[in-house]
């Protein structure tokens, strides 16, 4: 039940090799973390999975049979629209009752039901990221890609958000790929960790034990 199959992927920017010969199988419902040095190609791999960029070589197969094949991404910045309220950021001002209902359900899920009519600038960093998560889930994606989503948050908020995100991903059976610089975050959240040392060297591990000294 492979959801994302990365086949011998390579990516080169001009003369800069970002990734070389990367192979990965990510299963349905699995939570995978990509950790490692800055410049190791983590964000590049995420953008390739998202289809935002094309690989220089190799391919990425996404299982479209069990899904509308929807992939959604969440970033370190919330990317909310400041002139729209929280609920409008989710519904995009749709007047359809089912859209509004779905938006409210997701606000419940991220524990922000009291904030539907607030504007983003009235929220804390953690609250804004919870809205960003809810917005990513509006289209019922099968795959959620998280690019350092908690990177700008303080330690305590970060901790709480880790638990919340993990809980939601498991409840909704999302296939999740998290990019993080934080080894503890990866160890806490992921079923499976991929350590990316540089463009050519990476290894996979099932647990936190051997990732501290890659
Ligand atoms: P990480 O996310 O692990 O920090 P990146 O995927 O951002 O790594 O970058 C991997 C390598 O590819 C780096 O050497 C980076 O400078 C290069 N790179 C990434 N994106 C681009 C781009 N758009 N143009 C040129 N080089 C890039
Ligand atoms: P992250 O911290 O998430 O890895 P980066 O700071 O590496 O992100 O990259 C941010 C943006 O800059 C990305 O869109 C990436 O494609 C681009 N980028 C990264 N490295 C380079 C580079 N050497 N040349 C041009 N663009 C780059």
From TrEMBL:
Signal peptide: none annotated. SUPFAM superfamilies: P-loop containing nucleoside triphosphate hydrolases. Keywords: ATP-binding, Nucleotide-binding, Transport. GO terms for molecular function: ATP binding; ATP hydrolysis activity. InterPro entries: AAA+_ATPase, ABC_SmlMolc_Importer, ABC_transporter-like_ATP-bd, ABC_transporter-like_CS, P-loop_NTPase. Residues 4-214 form the ABC transporter domain. The keyword Transport applies. PROSITE patterns: ABC_TRANSPORTER_1 (PS00211), ABC_TRANSPORTER_2 (PS50893). It holds the Pfam family ABC_tran. This is Sulfonate ABC transporter ATP-binding protein. It comes from Companilactobacillus allii. The lineage of its organism: Bacteria, Bacillati, Bacillota, Bacilli, Lactobacillales.
